[in-house]
Amino acid sequence: MTADVEVGPPAEEISRIAAALDSTVLAARTLAGGYSHQTCLLTLADGAVVARFGGADPAVEAAVMDAARRHVPVPEVLLVLPAGAGEQSRPAMVIEYVAGTPLSEVLASDGFGSAAMAELGAEVGRVVAGIGAVTYDRPGFFADDRLTVREEQPWSAQLPEVAAACMANTPDVRLDPATRAGWLDLCRAYAPALVAVDGWSRLVHADVNPKNILVSRTGGGWRVDAVLDWEFAYSGCPYGDAANMVRFGADDPARYVVGFRRGFAEHQPDDLPLVEQWARLGRILDMFALSDLVTRPFGNPVADRAAEVIRDWVADGVPRS
Hints:
This protein is α+β, with helices and mostly antiparallel strands. It folds into 2 domains: 4-96, Phosphorylase Kinase, domain 1; 101-316, Alpha-Beta Complex (Aminoglycoside 3'-phosphotransferase, Chain: A, domain 2), CATH 3.90.1200. It has 10 helices and 11 strands. The two termini are 31 Å apart. Residues 1-6 have low confidence and may be disordered.
C-alpha cells in the first residue's frame, strides 16, 4: 500500500484491535505518511487490514468515508475504537486493505509515456470530481459522526483571519516578515472572490494529493482503487480539491496535470455546472491550506514546499489555472 518504516504501534493498541476483530495479529508494520496519525498494515490470521491510530475524530472520518464511497472508491471502515484507558492508547479506525500503487509513486516513475499520463490524469480528475456529488445543508466543518455541519463565517470572511493567525505562527526561517506581510495582502485582496462559492455545500476531501490516491494499470487504461485519508473533509466548494491536486503540479508530468484538469472539469456532478474561473477560485480556496502548512515544524518537506509556493504567489500573483 505504501512504503514500510521501522517503528510499529504500541502492543496494547494492537491487542485492542485484535480483540475487537476477534482475530490474531501476526505482524504490524507502520506505513509511511500521516501528519496527525499513524497508519499501520496489520497482518491477521485471516487476512490483512489497515489501522489508523490518532487523528482528530475517527468516528467523523468514518462517517465521511461511508458517505463518499457511494460515489467514489473508498475503503470500507471495519471498526472504530475510542481512545483506551492506557496512556499510549489512541483512538483508532480499522479499514479494509486495498491493493494499489500510490499515485505519487506512479508520477515519480519513468515507466509511462505522455499519453498514459494524460489518461491517468483524466481518470483521477473524474474520481475527484465525483466527491462533490455528496451534498449537505450548509457549508462548514462536521461537528459529529452524523455529519452535522457547524455554522461558520463565510470563507470570504475567514480567509484574511486564518491567514493572519497562521502567519503569526510561521517562523522567520521559513518565511521572512516581508513575505508574510505580502501573503496577508494577497489573501485580503483575493478573499472577496470567494463570495461566488461561499454558499456551496458539497463534500470536500481537503487533502487530495498523490500520496492519498491508490491506482492500478488495467489493460490499456487506469483505475483509481481508493481515495484515502478523509480526516480534513468538510462541506464547501469542490474546486479546492482540484487546486490541492495541482498545488505542487510543477513536480508532476505536464500531461498528467492537463489530463487531471480536463477530467475534473468534464465530470462535475449533473447538478453542479462548472463556473467561470473555477480553477482560480480553487487556488484561492487553497490559500487556507497553504497558510496552515507553513506553520508546521521546521524540516517538514510539505511545509517547506508550501513556503516556496507562497513566495511565488507573493511575487507573481495567484495562478489563473
